[in-house]
Amino acid sequence: MSSEVLILLSNFPDADAARKAVRTLVEERHIACGSIIPGVESIFEWKGAIEVSAEVTVVCKTTVAAVDAAQARLRVLHPYEVPEILRVPLAGGWPEYLAWVASQVGAPP
Fold first, then answer.
1. Domains contained in the chain, CATH given
2. pLDDT tens-digit profile of 11-69?
3. Cα–Cα distance between 54 and 21 in angstroms, integer?
């Protein structure tokens, strides 16, 4: 079951933007859940300058079967020009939780 579930990670400029995107992804059944983690500070080079940005991280739980559509939809919903959207495979997890994720993603029951 763990090979069927994976994580999408993304950083957003603020909790409101993250919340709107996560809610849409859940409502459209691209993801089972999105956890919003505030208080992230990112330091990166962008267009030749070092930037320091307050962000929130979103941890989305989805399935291998749904990840392409989830990633594409996340890209559309994301406010950044080049958003961070990372796929993270799982090595394992609580079987009942993994089954719940799989049951929440895709067509409505």
1. 2-104 (3.30.70.120)
2. 999 999 999 999 999 999 999 999 999 999 999 999 999 999 999 999 999 999 999 99
3. 18
Say what the pLDDT of residue 1 is.
57
The percent helix, strand, coil of the chain (3-state, each to 5) is 35, 40, 30
Two tokens at 51? 């930037």
Encode burial over 37-66: b for 16+ CB neighbours within 10 A, e otherwise.
eeeeeeeeeeeeeeeeeebbbbbbbbbeeb
Rounded to two decimals, the pTM is 0.93
Mapping DSSP to helix (H, G, I), strand (E, B) and coil, where does residue 66 land? coil
